[in-house]
Amino acid sequence: MRILLVEDHPTHLKLAGAVLSAEGHSIISASAAEQALQHIAVEPPEVILLDMSLPGMDGFALVRRLKASALTRDIPIVAVTSYVEAYSEAEALRIGCSAYLTKPLDTRSLARHLTDAFLRGPMPASEPGPAP
């Protein structure tokens, strides 16, 4: 599976990439939302693992943007955060994320969560957002 990892913390990016590569997945990495949009425009991933707390455009804004576009709305997105707050999970799911994971990531089940999100397919956003 082709996975886009969007994470601004180099250690987390490297760890998730190594774990998923070892499972046989093709990994594309981005450290910011703008860089992720560039990768998506060139070759859309099959699933996105997205840190919701990014510098500049945060993960919530990126999800809204992707879900507002016919070209990207069907890409399943798995939200990741180190801020464990109930409203964050509810908000992530409401705007169209397929799943919500907290840091530190459980490396033993990370690939399974992404595969499940891919097989489940995209979640519809319950609110419109600006187009990319």
How would you sum up this structure, described in words?
With about 130 residues, the chain is of the alpha/beta class. It has a single domain (about 1-120), classed as 3-Layer(aba) Sandwich (Rossmann fold). The protein has helices at about 10-20, 35-40, 60-65, 85-95, 110-120; strands at about 1-5, 25-30, 45-50, 75-80, 100. A five-stranded parallel sheet has the order 2-1-3-4-5, with helices on both faces. Helix 1 (about 10-20) links the parallel strand 1 and strand 2 (about 25-30). It starts with a strand and ends in a 12-residue tail after the last helix.
Question: What does the secondary structure layout of this molecule look like, with pairings?
Answer:
Elements: E1 2-6, H1 10-22, E2 26-30, H2 33-42, E3 47-51, H3 59-67, E4 77-81, H4 86-94, E5 99-102, H5 110-120
Parallel strand pairs: 1-2, 1-3, 3-4, 4-5
Can you count the helices?
5
**What is the correct CATH architecture?**
3-Layer(aba) Sandwich
How many DSSP-defined strands?
5
CATH superfamily: Response regulator
* Main pleated-sheet profile: 5 strands, parallel
The average pLDDT is: 88
Task: List the uncertain runs.
Answer: 128-132
Give helix % range: 25-40%
How many distinct folded domains?
A: 1
| Overall geometry | globular
Measured between the Cα atoms of the first and last residue, the distance is: 24 Å
Could you give a quick summary of the protein structure above?
It contains five helices and five strands. With 132 residues, it is of the alpha/beta class.
